[in-house]
Amino acid sequence: MKTARELGLMPKGKLAAGPNNAITDVTGVTVGHRSLRGEGIATGVTAIIPHPGDIFRLKPRAAVEVINGFGKSAGLMQVAELGTIETPILLTNTFGVAACTEALIRRAIAANPAIGRKTSTVNPLVCECNDGSINDIQAMAVTAADADAALDDARAGAVEQGAVGAGSGMTAFGFKAGIGTASRLMRVGKRDFTLGTLVLANFGAAGDLVLPDGRRPDPRVPASPERGSVIVVMATDLPLGDRQLQRVARRGGAGLARLGAFWGHGSGDVCLCFTTADPVEHDPAAPIASQQRLSDDFIDIAFRAAAESTQEAVLNALCTAPATAARNGRIYPALADWLKENPLS
Asked: Which keywords describe this protein according to UniProt (predicted)?
């Protein structure tokens, strides 16, 4: 399936995309998937690993922006309080959070046997969306072994998108959706930086989608209340403080709004942003740590990158996902098929 850019949906913006147009354009970041298929089953796990080292010992700085908190994620409260993450980030369905949490805890303990005994416990970070319209979520198909498989699959380079991993059973704006990613290159002073975004898209009321060219695709499915969710994960190598990271994360909402989202009462919309610059040591060698931080006068470029990459990541999730039948027989069409049937005049 072609991406939004390959289908001609993305106008030329002020910021260029990275070489893979993916979150993995940020050096050190890797992504892996585990997709589950079976009778009534279409679900999985997607893993985002911020760097190849021990994340518990060398914690990336991070922040979270909860746009609408109708969700059951794990670990966000501590991220908001301490401004760091201690494990890879796993995405899955709502009832898969416990299995993914267990997998992250066990892997962290295996690497650091002192966890919970001689040092602090670990904060597993798992985010979710409800894929119950396509997947039999009550089957609780996701296991800790599936989470491990997604983590073991993590790699740099191009990222598989659409109905894969955690996105296997997700829908958006009445169309089939799932995992999408995009990136933007940023020139600050005389240095080059990257911001990449990966989304788990499962939100938006049918008929509300607005394409960059102004068209409003009609999926021709029954109207329903906005009860979906979207998880937006941003990575950057730009040195940002925790307050700045939250401000950048907040601009993911601008990218969602460009698409026609209004964050309904039943929607869980969460944006998480981390930086690979100046991670925090678990056992600091000195009581005072030095960290670089971007001057606020130059932060607009990161805001733009966040909004643009979020918008394109969601469009990629929609464009690369095939038409899929729900458990009740309803068909969630592919946006790519709609575009073929409704070319620009």
From this structure: Aminopeptidase, Hydrolase, Protease
pTM of the model: 0.97
Residue 77 belongs to what H/E stretch? helix 76-82
Give the residue numbers marked as catalytic. Answer: 229, 267, 269
- Residue 27 belongs to a domain: yes
Task: Give the CATH number for residue 117.
Answer: 3.60.70.12
Q: Which of 229, 248, 239, 242 is nearest to 309 (CA)?
A: 248
Do the Cβ atoms of 268 and 68 come closer than 8 Å?
yes
Query: pLDDT-based confidence at 222, cuts 50/70/90?
Result: confident
State the amino acid at position 35 in one-letter form.
Answer: S
CA 143 to chain centroid, in Å, comes to: 20
Cβ(258)–Cβ(311) below 8 Å: yes
- Cβ(34)–Cβ(45) below 8 Å: yes
Q: What is the DSSP string of 12-38?
A: --SS---SSSSGGGSTT-EEEEEEEEE
User: In terms of residue numbers, what domain contains 171?
Assistant: 23-278+292-340
Q: What is the pLDDT at residue 270?
A: 98
pLDDT tens across 29-41, in order? 999 999 999 999 9
Residue 257 to residue 272: CA distance in whole angstroms: 17
